[in-house]
Amino acid sequence: MATTIHQPPRIEQIGDPSRPRSSSGNGGWRPLVPEGGDPHLVQEYAPPPASTGIWVALCAISMTFAALTSALVVRKGGAVDWRHFTLPSILYLNTLVLVASSVTLEIARRRVARFMGGLRSAAERPARWLYVTLTLGVLFVAGQYLAWRQLSSQGLYLATNPSSSFFYVFTAAHVLHLLGGLGGLSRVIYKLDRLVLRRSNFRRDRSLLALYGRSLGLFAFVAVGKTLTNSTGDSVSQADLTMEAHPPGLITGLPPFSVSAKKMAIWLFIIADAATFAACLVAYGFLRNGAAHWPRPFHSITNVALMTFILLTSSLTMLLGVRAAKAGDKSGAFRWTMITAGGGVVFALLHIREWLALIGEGMTMFHNPWGDPLFGASFFSITGLHLLHVTGGVIALVVVGLRYMRARYNADDLEVTGLYWHFVDLVWMFVVPFVYLLNLAQ
Amino acid sequence: MADVPNVEKHEPLARYTDPVSRYLLIYLCILVLAGLQFVIGYSHLDTSAKFARMLLIAIAEAGLALLFFMHLWAEKRGFLFFVVVLPASYWLQCNSVGLIVIVWNGAPHIRSLNPG
Hints:
Structural class of chain B: mainly alpha
Helix content of chain A: 55-70%
Number of helices of chain A: 12
Radius of gyration of chain A: 27 Å
Low-confidence stretches of chain A: 9-34, 220-252
Oligomer: heterodimer
Strand content of chain A: under 5%
Strand content of chain B: under 5%
Number of strands of chain B: 0
Shape of chain B: flat
Mean pLDDT of chain B: 75
Low-confidence stretches of chain B: 1-9, 107-116
Helix content of chain B: 55-70%
CATH topology of the largest domain in chain A: Four Helix Bundle (Hemerythrin (Met), subunit A)
């Protein structure tokens, strides 16, 4: 009887996790090109959807707190009724508690990672530091409650003064986010204790929660007017965990929503930037409503109409450029991209001309001859922010267009730049009616 | 040995193969809507009515740009939800409460939502 000897399976060594980390700018853990692999596979790499989701949430949360901070600065700057009060001393202790909780959370994350990697035994109770973090979080909430009680005993309530309103809104928003973090932490502890969670999922939950927890620590500093300092270092944390989850050089299936990493990144930026503009416009709306004599200085809108036409047309030319690039028409793509950039330059020049005309009529950031002094601040802030985006977009278009012609960038890069340009155009659709058309002279 | 994942290279959903005439049509629609905003700006409506109409038109313009210029229409519906609905709802929840409370003290006549 013949004996068949099968060829033993060939184990391909793709990467060695134990080797020293590179300083290639890729996070130090994953080679840019897998050995013998297709570099396109690496370019298509994208983080798991949950990780992307938590980053989007962090962007949105950051923008929310940034918007509140901006509103506070503007409201305080233009107020004669702003009342200063002494912060309850327990808030300083609370800040320390929150910093400590960030440290313990990081320790817990490392210990649990080692436990999940088989480097620690269950006897060492990997959840111990999670319990410490949970306790510190509860202590923080209790401290916050005591601070509110102290303020209310001084007669400072939500509607007493704008300063107390800001304090209550800030701290309540922060506590709400912290309670969300504590809920997530409880879920992780429950899963760890029950040992029912699959390892990969568990790792994901821990790393996301650590990220969220550290961010909350950051917002706490803003809320109590303390130093903007990141609560803990993040030297090896994400990389360690991700290395366990993904062997070097490999991708784990399709990216989320079948969207490439580059496109996902620009969409995340657009989401965050949209929140910024939306916050600015909402704050402007409230300022306008709150003013007794809001200026209506615009007699002619020919300039604005021309600017709008140019920007909308540049969106079309950008679209045609990306379309040509996708079709492989390099010269056509370059031509349309440069036309778009030219449109952006004309728009910026017209914008500056309009600014100079308004400045010539006596309008500055905090003064104007027509009415409420905050008109100048809000007008220059919103249109200036948009002009900054247009300027950045023009530079990006020229750089990407030139590099595309030299084959250093591809059609995807042009598409990503185009998405940004369309966003700049989209924002202008809201700026024109609210900042210009609602302020037309009667 | 680690599980070797599926490494098939995927094709993007938004391929930019629409005819130019479609882009032109969307562009003209946006242009007309923008023109409508200017007409409303010069109309004799009160500020609240102007604001409401302009906001609706701006949302329509932005929707067209998002769906067709930025090709969200060609992406997966989940991505559309991810990009538009989730951040918008989160932002509205947080900011509407915060800013309304702030203005509560700062602008007495905001309660009637009657722009000055």
